[in-house]
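Appendix B. Chain record.
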Amino acid sequence: MKMRYSIRAVISIVAAMLLPLVVYAQIDAAALARAQRGGQGNGIYGATIPGMDNTGMEGQEGMEGESADSTDAKKKREKRALESYYFADTVRALKNWKWNIDTHYNRVDIQPLDTTLSDWRIDYVFYRKGVGDMALGGLGQSSQAVNWFDRRQDPDFIFARSYDAYTARIDNVPFYNAKTPLTNLMYLESGQKRYREEHFEIVHSQNISPSTSFNVNYKSRGTMGLYDWQRTKNHNLSVAVAHTGKRYSVHAAYMNNSIETRENGGVVGEWAIADTTFEMPSGVPMRLASAEAKNRYRNNAFFIKQAIAIPLQRVTEYDFSLADIPSVYVGHQLEYNTWSKVYTDKRATYTNQRGHYNEETGKWESVGDLTYYDDWFIDPQTSRDSISERLLSNKVFVQVQPWDRDGVVSTIDGGIGVDLHTYSYLNLENYLSGQMTKDKRTSWYIYGATGGKIKRYADWGFNIKYHPSGYRGGDLSLGADVTLRAFIREHPLILRGRFSQSLRTPSYWQENLFSNHYAWFNSFDKESETRFEVNFSVPDIALELGAWQGVIGNMVYYGNDSRVAQHSGNVSLTSLYARKDFRFAGFHLDHRALVQITSNESVLPVPTFSAYLSYYYEFWVVRDVLRVQIGIDGRYNTAYHAPTYNPALAAFINQREVRVGNYPYLDAFVSAKWKRMRILLKLQHLNDNLFGNGEYFQVARYPLNPRMFKFGISWSFYD
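C-alpha cells predicted for this chain:
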C-alpha cells in the first residue's frame, strides 16, 4: 500500500513538472500551425529576408555577413506578437526594420536598416542610386538626376524640386518597428573650418507596443562655402507615429524642411577654374557674389493615413493575420502641405576677364558691367520675390482582398480625392501695394489599382488615376507592371516590365509668374508621356540590366533665355543601364553605366554616357570585430551642353554656350566598422590638378569641389 501511494506521489510530481511543458507545447503548436499556414516553414517566427540578418540590419552583399553582437544572443520572449496584414512572417522575424507608405494605396514598402559598410562611404545620398545626380557642388545644394527617368514629375511647388535628394516628404518619411529602442548618430565634416561641409544626423525609434511605434529623424547638412557666396544650410525634420494592428492601422507624420542658401550664379567663365592666378577656391570670381543673392525655403507638412479591416469570414484563433483571409479595408488620408520661397538680391555688375576674343591680336579681352538678370520689373535696385503654395488633400479609399494577399488577385483598390490648391504671389496689378494675390484651384480625382501574384514566380499590377473635373480636369495616368522570377538551384533570376502613360497639366508656376526678374502668363497644352521599362537582374551575382524608352509630347522646359517654353511635337529618349559588381577574394569591382540618346538636345539635353565606379578591398582586421574598406570611387560623363542653374527660378535651365564633362572625379577612402560604430576617412577629388584641363563641372558654370579631406562617424545604439 505504501508502495502504491509512493508510486502515485511520484507520478503526481512528474505530471506537475511536465504539465507546463505540455501546455506550452500546445500553445507553441498553435503558433506553429499559424506560421505554417502562412508558408513560413518550420520556424515559428519565420526565416530571415535574404540579405539581412535576424536583427533586421542589411548584410554585406556577396560577402560573408557580419556576426551579431554578443548582446543580441540573448533572446527575449515577447509578451505579445505583432499581428498585422502589412508584414509577412519573414518580416516579423526581424528585430528591426523600417518602411515607407504608399500615398495612394493601402500598402507599405519594407526596407532593411543599413548598418553595414556597403554605401557608408557615399556621403552624397544621390550617388547611391544609379549614376547619381548632377550637382552644384556643395553638400545640401541643388541637384538633378542624370538619368531623366529618375526625375520626379510632381507639379506641386516645382521650386523645391531640385532639393528632392534632401527633403523629407510623405513618400520617403520612414516608419520603424524596433523590438528594442534604436538610436543612430552620424557626423561628417570636411575641409578647413571656414570652408567646411557638415552633415549631422540623429534617428531615434522606439516601440510602445509590438504594433505601435514612433520615431524622430533629424538631418542637418550644408557647406560654409568653398567658393565665394556659396554658404548653404539644409535642415530636415520628421516625427512619425505608426500603429499597425490586426484590424486597424494608422500612419501619421509631421515634416519640416528649412533651406537657406546663398546664390553665386556660377563662375564668370569656365576658364577661371583652371586659371592659377586666382586663389583657389574662394578667390574665383562668381557672377552673383556682389549681388548678395539668397534663397530661403520653408516647408511644413502633416499627414495622417488610417484604415480599418473588415474580415469577410469568421476569424479564428488560427488566423494570425487577416492577410490570409478575405477582407475589406476602408481608409482615409488627409494631407496638409505648405511651401514658401523668398529670393533676394541687389543690382550689381561683374567683369568677365575673358569675355571677348580679339581675332586680330589673338588675345582675350575683358568685358565689364555685366549683369546676371536682364529685367528688373518691380524694383531697379533690389529684389524680394516671395512665392508660396498650400495644398489640402483629402481622399478615401477601399481595398478588397478577395482571397489572401498572395493570391492571383490579391487586392482590388479604389478611391476618390480632392486637392485644394492655394497659390500666392505678387500680381502685376497690385505689386505697388505689395499685396499678395491668392489664386485658389480645386481638383477632383478618382483612382484604382489591382494586382496579385502566382506563387513566387510572378507578380502583376495595374493602376489608373483620372481627374474628371477641376483645375487638372482631363489629367490621366495609367500603368501596368509584371515581375517574372525563375530559379536555378534557388538562385533567382528576375525580369521586370513596366508601362505607363500620362496626360498632365503643366505646373501652375510654369504658366503664372510675376517677379522682379521674370514674368509670364502662359496657357500651355497638356504634356503627354509614354514610357516603357525593362529590367533584368541576378541578385546573387550582382548583375542588373535595364532599358527605358520614353516619348514626351508638348514638353515644357526652360529655354536658353531662362523663359518657360513648350515644344510642339514629340521628344524621344532612350536609356540603357547596366550594373555589374565583381568579387574576387576581398576585392570589389563595382560598375554602374548609363547610355542616353535624345532626339532633341536643345529641349532635353543629357550626356551620352555616364558612369559611377567603385574599386576597393574589404577585409577583416579582427574577425567579427573590425572590418575595413580601402578604395577609390569615380564618376564620369561625356561632354555635352549640360543645363545651368538659375537662382531666381530655382530651376535647371537649358543652355547652348558651353559644353562640360569629359572629366573624371575621383575620391579615395578608408572606411571601417568596429562593432556598431562606422568610421570614414576620405580624400575628395583626389585627382584635382593632376590631369585634364581642371574644368570640373557637372552643371554648366557651377564647379564641383576641389580637393579636400573628409572624416565621419556613425554610431548605432540598440540592444
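Further analysis of this model is presented in Appendix C.
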